[in-house]
């Protein structure tokens, strides 16, 4: 017999025991379900708890003093208990999935077994009764967890037709848990990837975020490509397949992008860097040209890639701040530093990039570099440039209008009127200081400002 099947009970945290005692005192059952049970059985930590109970939302609200009706339409409430938030969903049986998006209505189910039968994968259809932790596992999810295997509860085709998001969830779990995927499930996705089309962008985005946040995003993304989901969700990436770029690069643009994204994930770089790693070369198919010697070139691809990144992330309803951050990294990823750069070139780079983004750009550069060869880039990849930036900034930090030694008020005091000229003169002063930080004194800048003002009056 398999080892995990021998596990009949899991350890239950004291807080959940206390909660269960309250349910039981009112004649109600309560089970821990979903990811918490799955992850406990895998020997991993899971932060949030989902509970299932035969108590209906109104009853739970009567039993506990602090209950928030967070998802009443789906039979879900959140109990606030000793500073924890615990979601409880009444046993459910899903109504018709008319359009493959979401059940049209919910009905309550009669037992935990019936509730488990509507869940997506066997590993997610295990319950642990509270307070004692006794396992209820009608689909032998424990066997699949042990085999590291994702399999639908029941017939894959039917389960995917009910809710197209399950296809993406399966691939997401493969990346997150490093699990394999049942052949029948993969075939069912491949046979009808269009099932994802009616699913809302927000739900798709949440899965994509979890893929990007996982240890190896390429697992899911390659499955997506093979099953036909990539061209539906991220067509801009799908068409990078087969775009060759011989030279420093060993791989086509899609493999390069996936390796870069994996490197960013492996090194726990932040989300915007991971997304930038994935999308930074999406403009290459459009900009590819062979030069006279037969070598592929991609002039200005970073500009096209930045536009494509904006359009992908807008479509997926990312926040404006998240979009701007990622687009900026993509736009600036091509800096090519060498020690012939002048001080003012370094300062201008820092101004364009923004001091706060420089570490992210260096991270992206490492990921990009890994994606070219699949080999760890040299440890000192950006050391020289970092040193140059530090020493340059130490000499003068004026990088934006707020850093220069005069203000608009100072200029008004010497008779320059606010309006078009004022803005122009201030920008010229900043340019002068970027070229020569020693000019950044009130006296020198006021002299330069008056000279501009006189010129413009003539
Ligand atoms: P994680 O929280 O790490 O994403 P999870 O398994 O807890 O993993 P949730 O999205 O929180 O995933 O869902 C909780 C449980 O609800 C799942 O384990 C599964 O049993 C069920 N579930 C969630 N989404 C679906 C769905 N689309 N179809 C069927 N069952 C689902
Ligand atoms: Mg969960």
Task: Describe the fold and architecture.
There is one protein chain. The chain is of the alpha+beta class and 458 residues long. The chain folds into four domains: 4-142, Beta Polymerase, domain 2 (2-Layer Sandwich); 148-233, Hydrophobic Seed Protein; 258-395, Hypothetical protein af1432, CATH 1.10.3210; 401-457. Helix content is 50%, strand content 10%. A seven-stranded mixed beta sheet has the order 3-4-5-2-1-8-9. The N and C termini lie far apart (95 Å). Bound molecules: adenosine-5'-triphosphate and magnesium ion. Magnesium ion binds next to loops.
Stretches with pLDDT under 50, minimum 5 residues: none
Question: CATH homologous superfamily of the largest domain, by name?
Answer: Beta Polymerase, domain 2
Can you summarize the main beta sheet? 7 strands, mixed
Strands of the widest sheet, in order across it, are 3-4-5-2-1-8-9
User: What is the second-level CATH architecture of the largest domain?
Assistant: 2-Layer Sandwich
- Total of domains: 4
Mean pLDDT: 93
Beta strands, count: 13
Report the CATH topology name of the largest domain.
Beta Polymerase, domain 2
Number of helical regions: 23
**Beta-strand fraction estimate:** 5-15%
N- to C-terminal distance: 95 Å
Bound molecules: adenosine-5'-triphosphate, magnesium ion
Query: Which class of secondary structure composition applies to the elements?
Result: alpha+beta
Q: Portion of residues in helices?
A: 40-55%
CATH class of the largest domain: Alpha Beta
Oligomer: single chain
Q: Please give the radius of gyration in angstroms.
A: 29 Å
What characteristic shape results from the CA principal axes?
elongated
